[in-house]
Design goal:
The protein is an alpha+beta fold and 1149 residues long. Among the domains are: 103 residues, PH-domain like (Roll); 380 residues, Porin. The protein contains 32 helices and 28 strands. The chain has an eight-stranded antiparallel β-sheet with strand order 5-6-7-1-2-3-4-10. The chain has a six-stranded antiparallel β-barrel with strand order 16-17-20-21-19-18. Strand 16 and strand 17 form a beta hairpin. The protein is elongated, with a radius of gyration of 40 Å. This is Oxysterol-binding protein family member. Pfam families: Ank, Ank_2, Oxysterol_BP, PH. One of its GO terms (biological process) is maintenance of cell polarity. Keywords: ANK repeat, Coiled coil, Lipid transport, Lipid-binding, Phosphoprotein, Repeat, Transport.
Length: 1149
């Protein structure tokens, strides 16, 4: 390039808008504030004309920033005043807020909406507000929430200034464009039903009445009782003001003409079903009297979710909640309802206002159409004349108060055209009132200003012009206004003057009326994934904007150079080709994304349909099981009746005809008895009789000893009466203050007791035992199936569930719940017969499951190093557990008492199978029992059975425990296998458990049976002795939060005297669990995230230092008898606790 050419290029660059735009993009993209400030200073000092291309580029700096720059740069531009107006519009009429919404820049939307000078009601050239350009549903929800906050704040401020008569502030508020758009001075008070004008007319305040009328107060607006302001006026001065205002409005509107029907659009929440609840949707009320809704504004050209014609629709307010209302659609032989809800009652009133007038308009049009159809062969001309006739008839009864100045009462907005000023409530005095200052679907009719000229290209600022997936529906017709207000009551227009309903009909379809939308929507289990994808979508949008604007601006720069430059021409062609390729690439990516999205939504819909089918099948199976159970019970009852008859006939001494009456039956002959005897013999052979010996015991308790072993098992050296007293002392209900401790008999028992006392095990437990929680269970209700359905086949321990699924206990405290029935171990130690000791040990092992009934909520997962201690002076035992591993989760526990030591590990493997999820314990549990007589100490071991939650799909989850539990006495070789039967269709098999105690010689000594949720019985094998109760579950408290037992309610009690003795790792000090117990569910979720993140940070720190975590109170060892690995307690915890040496443990919470 020649020197002359280079000089020309440099000269042109100084004034080139495209080059300046490139420099701006570089600064914005890199977040270079200093360089950006320098560029703006140079422009300012160069004194470019305001209309020059360079000045326009600087003026639209914020438009560029919201598309490509981080939030910090946008904040810098606004705070430093680098742009004169945050609401400035570009060539397409878009403000920076429009572009931020379109590009789903939620952080920037939040920032701009927080500015006092922002106006989110400005329309672009397509008659769209920023909220209508929202790129996704989350951005739309954000706009809706921020608007609601502004409306609430402004409404409160208006009311405050009306009360204080601050006319200056009121004038400022009522002339603010955003406030005028979103608030209506003619709204009615929700309590009194009056407008502000009514209120001050009643107060006889001429000054305020004049002010209100001059700022848009409507003298024709009726209150909920149907009265005009002038009807309530007392003084002649106030009446004069109102009459003059009415005349002025008539004069102003003489030349006005009535235009199209009311239209409206915006976000509302629509009820889907009990699983989905309310979901945000985009609604459009068009000028044909149709109300349609879509998933988001972007879907209006793709898929309409539902549409109704308001011709025969009804509208009903919800008297219980002001933000809710219903649309009732009466079709041919059917009635369907749309349950709708807005964010705020002011927004509800805005929708109700529009819909009422649309219903009335559609009803009148339909009525006229039917009349004119008989007189015309052309349907289209008939409709046209009907509309003309309708407008004409309305004008003959109304005053036109359309105002073309800034003080006009009606303002057409992008959300809706203005509508008839006669409120729906004018005709329905019994209906719910409109808000005090309600939002009104309106906007000024005059133009806000001429559109600014474009820069160099047609649309340089909106990079999405040709790249949006779905353009918005044109709403030109919604710009028109119906500006007629009735000078008399509209009551005559309706058949029912006091009815809350205005009639309508169903035109097209509503898939949600049958809960179909819930199947086509993204399920609860997928929402988090799609939310994460939306973050990437926003980032991709920014990158796309960068590339598009960079190419476009560079192309403009090349085009601005002299045409004789061969280099410039070649470069320009190259950039043009790149731009075309990129546009084609972008279009193909958009098509692919749309196709993938549709495919995914279709698959989700199919999955949802399968889920419903599975739910129906599961319900059908449960119904059949219940019917089979009923039949089985009837068969069982019949069998008992037949046995009773056989027994009665056998006892009869008469050989002749014998009469036996059984529950009102007819006399039975001897021949008939012989036939029945054969049936009874057959029934006797059935195996169910053996099972019934325990499970029928609850029906006949007369032959059952309560908690007393058979006499032959009791030592002859000790009287039976004394032994019964000893047993009775132990079988007291949990929490009973009279429950004592068994006397210590052996040296080992006394030595262990001395250790417990010496180490201060019960220090801090002087306070009483808590038996109830203070809160009621009012957690947010969430569908368990909705959360778990995406986790089928996964390990439950690795699932993340909402905190509302938790109960206020941890898994460590769930282990401690094994201690509820330790009196069984104390009792076992009193027997000389090793087989009878095993009976009570087995009962203890089975009793651990009684507390699982109705405990569906998930305990908190313990943190690594978390500990929990629990001691009971009244029971003479102490318990301690530590979380020794996080992956896999393992808790090592030990409980100590003078007569026994109980220890093991809580390690589980869990999996979700769809219809149920199972929790299978892996660890072995050990019991060292020190009997009062004979053997000094004996070792028992067992593994726990599988716990399962069934009935998830049908929404009625139930806990079941099933499998075989083999308990072995390694010292005497006695053993028992307890069979926990899985829950089946037989009602009496639910919770069933039974087993046989076999001694070391293989002889069956005792049989055990009953239900693990209520009672267990024992019986000496082969004897005719009656059965005896081994264990009975403690009664469950009523209305206990989380369905906890009385014992479980005591575990997390923050006893004041105890807190000083606890290490900072104790579960009682965990903040998220404490918040959950106190009913602070939002705090619990926040705290849960905090402690988990702290745990992750500690893990990363250990990994960086290459350190391996070691538990503080347990070490991994090999058991000398079983040869299995187990966690050995180092016996240091209670010693350090007694000497207050627990301060060095890490603060994991």
């Amino acid at each position: 390039m020649s020197e002359k050419s280079q000089t020309a290029l440099d000269s042109s660059s100084k004034l080139n808008a495209s080059l300046l735009r490139l420099k701006f993009l570089d600064c914005l993209r890199n977040g270079d504030k200093q360089k950006l400030q320098k560029q703006m200073d140079e422009i300012k000092n160069s004194n470019y004309p305001p209309n020059s291309e360079v000045s326009k580029v600087a003026k639209y700096l914020l438009h560029y920033a919201v598309q490509v720059a981080p939030l910090s740069i946008v904040q810098y531009i606004v705070e430093k005043g680098l742009v004169s107006d945050v609401n400035i519009q570009d060539g397409d009429g878009n403000t920076p807020l429009h572009l931020a919404a379109q590009n789903t820049r939620d952080d920037i939307v939040s920032f701009l909406m927080s500015l006092d000078t922002i106006n989110d009601c400005i329309l672009n050239k397509n008659k769209q507000q920023p909220i209508e350009l929202a790129g996704d549903i989350e951005t739309g929800q954000l706009f809706s929430d921020l608007r609601t906050k502004f409306v609430e704040k402004s409404a409160a401020e208006l009311r405050k200034n009306f009360e204080s008569r601050n006319f200056e502030k009121l004038d400022e508020l009522l002339t603010d464009p955003r406030t005028k758009e979103l608030l209506d001075i003619n709204g009615t008070d929700p309590v009194t039903g009056d407008t502000v004008l009514h209120e001050y007319v009643k107060r006889n305040d001429p000054q305020m009445v004049k002010f209100i009328v001059s700022h848009g107060g409507d003298p024709f607006k009726r209150n909920v009782k149907g009265k005009l302001p002038i009807d309530t006026a007392v003084s002649s001065e106030v009446k004069k003001i109102l009459k003059e205002s009415s005349k002025e409005q008539n004069i102003i509107d003489q030349g006005a003409t009535s235009v199209g029907p009311p239209t409206f659009k915006g976000f509302l929440k629509k009820w889907t079903n009990f699983a989905g609840g309310y979901k945000l949707r985009w609604f459009i009320l068009d000028d044909h009297g149709r109300l349609s809704y879509f998933k988001s504004p972007n879907d209006i050209n793709n898929s309409c979710r539902g549409s109704i014609n308001l011709c025969h629709a009804s509208l009903k307010m919800d008297s219980s909640e002001k933000s809710k209302f219903e649309i009732i659609i009466v079709g041919a032989g059917s009635v369907s309802k749309w349950h709708l809800k807005a964010n705020h009652y002011i927004e509800t009133n805005r929708w109700v206002w529009a819909l009422q007038n649309a219903i009335r308009y559609a009803k009148d049009i339909e009525k006229k159409r039917k009349l004119l159809e008989k007189e015309s062969s052309s349907k289209s001309s008939a409709v046209s004349r009907a509309r003309e006739s309708f407008d004409s008839s309305r004008n003959s009864h109304t005053y036109n108060i359309n105002s073309k100045n800034a003080m006009g009462h009606f303002r057409t907005s992008s959300a809706a055209s203005s509508i008839s000023n006669s409120s729906y409530y004018d005709n329905e005095p019994d209906s719910a009132p409109v808000s005090e200052i309600s939002r009104k679907p309106s906007k000024r009719l005059e133009k806000s200003g001429q559109g600014l000229p474009d820069i160099s290209e047609a649309h340089p600022l909106n990079t999405d012009k040709n790249l949006t997936i779905a353009d918005s529906v044109s709403m030109d017709s919604s710009r028109k206004a119906i500006v007629n207000a009735s000078n008399q009551s509209f009551a005559s227009d309706y058949d029912d003057e006091n009815s809350e309903l205005v009639h309508g009909d169903l035109e097209e379809y509503d898939p949600e009326a049958e809960d179909v939308e819930n199947s086509s929507d993204i399920g609860e289990g997928y929402q988090d994934q799609f939310r994460a994808l939306s973050v990437y979508s926003s980032e991709l949008k920014v990158l796309q904007n960068n590339l598009t604007m960079e190419l476009s601006t560079f192309k403009d720069l090349l085009n601005s150079l002299p045409k004789d430059y061969t280099f410039a021409e070649i470069s320009s062609n190259s950039v043009l080709n790149i731009e075309r390729i990129f546009q084609k690439y972008t279009k193909l990516v958009a098509l692919r994304t749309e196709k993938l999205t549709r495919t995914l939504e279709r698959q989700i819909k199919i999955s949802s349909l399968w889920e419903k089918e599975i739910q129906n099948l599961d319900s059908e199976i449960r119904d059949r099981e219940e019917r089979l159970a009923t039949l089985e019970n009837k068969q069982k009852s019949l069998r008992k009746v037949l046995k009773n008859r056989f027994s009665l006939s056998g006892e009869s001494s008469k050989p002749e005809v014998t009469q036996v009456t059984v529950t009102g039956s007819s006399p039975i002959t001897e021949a008939a008895m012989e036939g029945e005897a054969e049936i009874i013999d057959m029934l006797k052979d059935e195996s169910d009789d053996d099972d019934d010996q325990f499970f029928d015991a609850e029906d006949d308790s007369s032959s059952i000893q309560s908690g007393i072993a058979p006499d032959e098992t009791i030592s002859e050296k000790e009287p039976v009466t004394e032994r019964r007293k000893s047993r009775a002392a132990t079988l007291v209900e949990e929490g009973d203050a009279e429950g004592g401790v068994h006397p210590l008999v052996t040296l080992l028992q006394r030595e262990k007791s001395l250790i417990l006392e010496k180490e201060g095990s019960f220090l801090g437990y002087e306070d009483g035992i808590r038996t109830r929680l203070s809160l009621s269970d009012d957690r947010p209700k969430i569908s368990l199936w909705g959360i778990l359905k995406s986790m089928i086949g996964k390990d439950m321990t690795k699932m993340t569930l909402p905190v509302s699924f938790n109960e206020c206990t941890s898994l460590l405290q769930r282990v401690a719940e094994d201690m509820e029935y330790v009196d069984l171990l104390d009792s076992a130690a009193t027997f000389e017969d090793s087989a009878l000791r095993l009976v009570y040990v087995a009962a203890f092992a089975a009793s651990e499951y009684a507390s699982t009934i109705d405990r569906i909520a998930k305990p908190f997962n313990p943190l690594l190093g978390e500990t929990y201690e629990y001691a009971r002076p009244d029971r003479n035992y102490r318990f301690f557990v530590e979380q020794v591993s996080h992956h896999p989760p393992i808790g090592a526990a030990i409980a100590e008492s003078p007569k026994w030591d109980y220890f093991g590990e809580s390690a589980v493997k869990s999996k979700f199978y769809g219809r149920s999820f199972d929790i299978k314990p892996l660890g072995t549990w050990y019991l060292n029992l020190r009997p009062d007589h004979g053997i000094k100490e004996e070792l028992y071991t067992w593994k726990k059975v599988t716990s399962s939650v069934v009935g998830i799909i049908t929404g009625s989850p139930t806990v079941d425990n099933y499998g075989e539990m083999k308990i072995v006495n390694h010292t005497t070789k006695d053993s028992v296998v307890l069979n926990f039967k899985p829950r089946g269709w037989r009602s009496n098999s639910a919770y069933e458990v039974k087993g046989e105690v076999v001694d070391g010689k293989g002889v069956v000594r005792y049989t055990i049976g009953g239900h693990w949720n209520s009672v267990l019985y024992g019986k000496h094998a082969g004897s005719g002795k009656e059965k005896f109760v081994i264990w009975r579950a403690n009664p469950r408290p009523k209305d206990m939060a989380f369905n906890l037992t009385t014992f479980a309610a005591s575990l997390n009690a923050p006893q004041k005297k105890l807190l000083d003795w606890l290490p900072q790792t104790d579960t009682r000090l965990r903040p998220d669990q404490r918040a959950m117990e106190e009913g602070r569910y939002d705090d619990a979720s926040v705290e849960k995230n905090k402690v988990e993140e702290k745990q992750r940070a500690a893990r990363r720190k250990r990994e960086a230092a290459n350190q391996e975590y070691k538990p503080k109170w347990f070490t991994l060892g090999t058991h000398p008898v079983t040869g299995e690995q187990y966690w050995v307690f180092n016996n240091k915890y209670w010693y350090n606790r007694a000497h207050h040496n627990l301060k060095d443990v890490p603060n994991i919470f």
